[in-house]
From TrEMBL, chain A:
<feature type="transmembrane region" description="Helical">
    <location>
        <begin position="97"/>
        <end position="125"/>
    </location>
</feature>
<feature type="transmembrane region" description="Helical">
    <location>
        <begin position="12"/>
        <end position="35"/>
    </location>
</feature>
<comment type="similarity">
    <text>Belongs to the TRAP transporter large permease family.</text>
</comment>
<feature type="transmembrane region" description="Helical">
    <location>
        <begin position="319"/>
        <end position="349"/>
    </location>
</feature>
<protein>
    <recommendedName>
        <fullName>TRAP transporter large permease protein</fullName>
    </recommendedName>
</protein>
<dbReference type="Pfam" id="PF06808">
    <property type="entry name" value="DctM"/>
</dbReference>
<feature type="transmembrane region" description="Helical">
    <location>
        <begin position="222"/>
        <end position="240"/>
    </location>
</feature>
<feature type="transmembrane region" description="Helical">
    <location>
        <begin position="56"/>
        <end position="77"/>
    </location>
</feature>
<keyword id="KW-0997">Cell inner membrane</keyword>
UniProtKB/TrEMBL annotation, chain C:
<dbReference type="GO" id="GO:0005886">
    <property type="term" value="C:plasma membrane"/>
</dbReference>
<comment type="subunit">
    <text>The complex comprises the extracytoplasmic solute receptor protein and the two transmembrane proteins.</text>
</comment>
<dbReference type="GO" id="GO:0022857">
    <property type="term" value="F:transmembrane transporter activity"/>
</dbReference>
<keyword id="KW-1003">Cell membrane</keyword>
<keyword id="KW-0472">Membrane</keyword>
<keyword id="KW-0813">Transport</keyword>
<dbReference type="InterPro" id="IPR007387">
    <property type="entry name" value="TRAP_DctQ"/>
</dbReference>
<feature type="domain" description="Tripartite ATP-independent periplasmic transporters DctQ component">
    <location>
        <begin position="34"/>
        <end position="165"/>
    </location>
</feature>
<dbReference type="InterPro" id="IPR055348">
    <property type="entry name" value="DctQ"/>
</dbReference>
Length: 434, 316, 173
């Protein structure tokens, strides 16, 4: 690897750490390579950003963010929580399971981990604390399970992966679903272990009939929200629409539900929900635009090829190479959030994957689980930090449970996903034929 | 500067490594290196590494990359549509006469590209165009048949010309981004696409195509183009050498293209795809229908001068 | 004195108007591209008819939104950042100084983006580049993006001045 590129990486990380917005650190890194290299015309960077971000495929991201935002402001999170609560609430540690399961279901509506933290965390953390859970633990559980939103379709991260590697989003959406289910079970398991010693208040058990009626009632209330993921997935995999179009359908579905079924939305809050979703989108898209600029310069500098030769010169053993790739992704995940990580790492590592015969859809699950984990591993752990803001705790209080979730839930799932291709490929193959 | 200093160029193309076009581009780079005695070298970037072809088209014109073997879109000039103007040429012989270096359409194209800071070195003959469909196509030879149940995707630049052609032939037309095309056909959002050659059907659509209709609607050419400023960086002699190599390779490719199409069609048949080809009479009835009913409506795409040039040429 | 006061309140009103305008642009473009894509679905699936150019229009609207929205994100201090300084260091002069520096760097980088984009506006005007389906001049799209970038540079500059005043105030007290 040329030393200029290493200096460039150092510059990138330094600027990130002192707090320059991530998008602009990419511009700086690109600019550095341009200045150090031999470039006549440099407008190709903006051209690249424009050509790629004006793609119809990418339009899925603003649309899913918008649909999620309208649903959240329409009060869907609360109703989903009620359903899960009526199912698991009266068991010991049940509220923890409620959190995990609700986040997973919410993830099928929202494409981003941060919206899951905001929507679920703000309701669930106070409720868990009230019932005797440790505040730090509750916050950690919410933050760690929020990552499920990016593993369960629709997912902004998977849309980006498909877009940046020219892999079909329809297939990519399904790749991390089984790993996500595995994570859900591991979270529930560790929830029971970790809450053993907490002074939990357990609600009195109600009669079976009463419980059944309650579940039925709550499910009916949440039904319109629960129907949304069914519509999205049904439209995509039933051959009605592309993933982008399904997102527009989801928005058009969410509006009447929020206004007239849940009656939680007014014109004022609708206006605000829409432009705020647009701001979230825009900030994300700026990262994407700028990462595209940097990625283009890196290809001009031949970096993907250099990474390939460097890795192959270390070993040609597929298992060792996959371990190295995981290590690389772990480091990327430590310093970057999922969006930047995927935009940089996916094109850089794609040649390696082609060389050792890893299917692009399998790699989607590998990179997704890895960078999802990166959202909660310090030093750069945006979802964990966001969680502490929502939960009102300090970082040291959440570290211990988070370490348990990272080492005993995420890491095993990452490794299983890497070394058992079927875990990622089985579902896409079943549904799309791949 | 050292007299041994060589000029290094970047050459982009969209075809995957090992494809016919990739081999052709690498052969061009190799010949240039040998015949200019290392004074000029081309580094070949395959498979859209420097951006997809719409983007590299901009980069070419702006001079960020020096050369490419690719198709061109209508964004700088509507008249570029002449390169896939439907049923302008419908057999290999007339395709070579029109498109090879010095041919009448080659000169037209070169003239158009001059204004975009580009020099046309040579055409790369991709093959005869057709349509890939995920179901059976009945009566494909009848220009008046009804295929309204088939939604065929038209590529964006081809919308102005090929949408009316397909609609004249009774098909339903639709749009879809390239990245979702494969699964879009697979899940059944749409039923097929126009704008490729038998090689595309094998490489890009393998597994989802049930029928390949060899419509011969256009002869697909890609263009070996170079940025004018990049050209000016090398000596007049070397420029001549490069142009000669390009012309020679283009001619060679024209001689192979029919056979190449045929072998890819055979490959399709072997994997169970129904390949529909037409005899001269059937083809004439389709192309007559398009020339009569569609050409007058799409002539604006070319402008009067070009349209007249074309009509006169083919009425001779 | 009163003229200074009125002109200040005039500028404040103008400032708020501009923010409101940005919100309105973000709202209406979002609604517009959602409707465009939705109409395409309905039309293709129910009426078996596809509009050509809808995808183009929707994605060009979106890209303008991205930059106008990113500028608003700058104003709202909502950019994605991975700052270690903010999350690990105690508030104080060091943190304040790093804010001044990051805003300065950000302003500079935004200005750089503006100049490159301005080149492309000129290029696209000169070559009369058009979108392939609707024949929209591409320069217009770049001008929309450029507007967002200029606003972004402006907001970072304002933030830098704020951070600098903050640093001085702390220094004095
Ligand atoms: Na999701
Ligand atoms: Na991290």
């Amino acid at each position: 690897m040329s030393s200029i590129v290493l200096w460039d990486v150092a510059l990138l990380i330094t600027l990130m750490m002192i707090g320059v917005p991530v998008a602009l650190t990419f511009v700086a890194a690109a600019l550095f390579l341009i200045v150090m290299g031999d470039y006549g015309n440099t407008s190709f960077m903006i051209t690249a950003g424009f050509a790629k971000t004006s793609s119809m495929v990418l339009l899925a991201i603003p649309l899913y963010i918008l649909a999620g935002s309208i649903m959240t402001n329409g009060g869907i999170a609360k109703r989903l929580l009620d359903v899960a609560d009526s199912l698991f609430g009266h068991y010991r540690g049940g509220l923890g399971v409620v959190t995990v399961v609700t986040t997973a279901v919410f993830g099928a509506i929202s494409g981003m981990a941060s919206s899951a933290v905001a929507a679920i965390g703000s309701i669930m953390i106070p409720r868990m604390v009230e019932k005797g859970y440790d505040r730090g633990y509750a916050t950690s559980l919410v933050a760690c399970s929020a990552v499920l939103a990016l593993l369960i379709p629709p997912s902004a991260t998977m849309i980006l992966y498909g877009w940046v590697t020219s892999t079909s989003i329809t297939a990519v959406f399904l790749a991390p679903v089984l790993p996500a289910l595995l994570l859900i079970s591991l979270f529930c398991f560790w929830n029971f272990v970790l809450t053993r010693k907490m002074p939990l208040v357990i609600e009195k058990k109600v009669s079976f009939k009463e419980a059944k009626e309650n579940i039925f009632l709550k499910t009916r209330k949440a039904g319109f929200g629960l129907a949304m993921p069914v519509i999205i997935l049904g439209f995509i995999y039933g051959g009605v629409t592309t993933p982008t179009e399904a997102a527009a359908v989801a928005v058009m579905y969410a509006v009447p539900v929020a206004f007239w079924v849940y009656k939680d939305m007014t014109w004022g809050s609708f206006y605000e929900a829409v432009w705020k979703a647009a701001q979230v989108t825009a900030v994300l898209m700026l990262v994407i635009f700028c990462a595209t600029m940097l990625a283009r310069v890196l290809t001009f500098e031949d970096v993907p090829q250099q990474i390939l030769t460097t890795l192959l010169s270390i070993t040609e053993n597929k298992i060792l190479l996959l371990l190295l790739v995981n290590l690389f992704l772990l480091m990327v995940g430590m310093f970057m959030e999922d969006v930047s990580g995927i935009l940089l790492a996916a094109p850089l590592l794609m040649p390696v994957m082609n060389e050792i015969g890893v299917h692009p859809v399998h790699f989607a699950a590998i990179i997704g689980t890895n960078l999802g984990m990166g959202l909660i591993t310090p030093p750069t752990a945006p979802i964990l930090y966001f969680g502490t803001l929502v939960g009102g705790v300090k970082l040291p209080q959440v570290i211990k449970p988070t370490l348990v979730f990272v080492f005993l839930a995420y890491l095993p799932v990452v490794l299983l996903t890497t070394f058992i291709p079927e875990l990622a490929l089985w579902l896409p193959r079943l549904v799309t034929g791949l | 500067a050292s007299t041994l200093a060589s000029t290094n160029f970047r050459l982009s193309h969209s075809a995957p490594p090992g494809s016919d076009r990739d081999i052709w581009a690498k052969e061009f780079a190799k010949q240039v290196k040998i015949q200019t005695e290392d004074r000029v070298t081309f580094r070949v970037y395959p498979a859209n590494q420097l951006g997809d072809w719409e983007e590299t088209y901009d980069q070419l014109s702006q001079g960020s990359i020096d050369a490419a073997v690719q198709s061109l879109s209508t964004k700088y000039d509507k008249r570029i549509g002449i390169s896939w103007f439907p049923y302008s040429v419908s057999d290999y012989k007339s395709a070579e006469q029109a498109w090879n270096v010095g041919g009448f359409l080659f000169d037209v194209m070169n003239g158009l590209l001059q204004k975009q800071n580009l020099t046309l070195l040579a055409p790369y003959a991709n093959g005869m165009g057709g349509m890939a469909v995920s179901s059976n196509v009945e009566q494909a030879d009848n220009p008046n048949a009804d295929h309204k149940n088939l939604k065929i995707r038209v590529w964006p630049s081809g919308a102005a010309t090929h949408r009316p052609v397909l609609e004249r032939l009774g098909y339903n037309t639709t749009t879809m981004p390239w990245a979702e095309l494969y699964t879009g056909v697979q899940t059944g959002v749409i039923d097929g696409m126009i704008g490729g050659t038998p090689e595309n059907a094998v490489r890009d659509w393998n597994g989802i195509v049930k029928t390949w209709v060899q419509l011969n609607d256009h002869f697909e050419v890609n263009w070996l183009v170079m940025n004018q400023y990049s050209m000016s960086r090398i000596s007049e002699n070397d420029r001549q050498t490069i142009q000669n190599i390009a012309k020679e390779l283009a001619t060679e490719r024209f001689q192979q293209v029919a056979k190449s199409d045929e072998s890819y069609r055979q490959e399709l048949k072997d994997s169970g795809v129904t390949v529909i080809t037409f005899n001269e009479q059937e083809l004439a009835s389709i192309s007559d229908a398009v020339r009569k009913d569609v050409w007058p409506h799409i002539k604006d795409e070319l402008g009067d001068d070009l349209y007249q040039l074309m009509v006169n040429h083919y009425n001779e | 004195m009163t003229t200074i006061k009125t002109s200040i309140s005039f500028f404040i009103a103008l400032w708020h108007l501009k923010l409101r305008l940005q919100q309105w642009v973000m709202f209406s473009t979002s609604i517009a591209f959602t409707l465009l894509v939705f109409i395409q679905v309905i039309s293709r699936y129910i009426f078996d008819y596809s509009f050509f150019g809808i995808e183009e229009a929707a994605s060009y609207l979106a890209i303008i939104l991205y930059f106008i929205g990113a500028a608003y994100g700058t104003h709202a201090k909502g950019h994605i950042s991975a700052s270690i300084v903010d999350s690990l260091c105690h508030p104080g002069r060091f943190v304040n100084a790093s804010h001044v520096i990051t805003c300065l760097i950000s302003t500079f980088l935004c200005i750089y983006l503006c100049t490159e984009t301005w080149e492309l506006v000129q290029f696209n005007l000169k070559m009369d580049v058009r979108s392939v389906e609707l024949r929209i001049p591409i320069a217009w799209i770049y001008i929309g993006m450029l507007t967002g970038m200029i606003l972004m540079a402006f907001y970072f500059f304002i933030e830098m001045i704020e951070a600098f005043c903050h640093l001085l105030k702390r220094h004095i007290s």
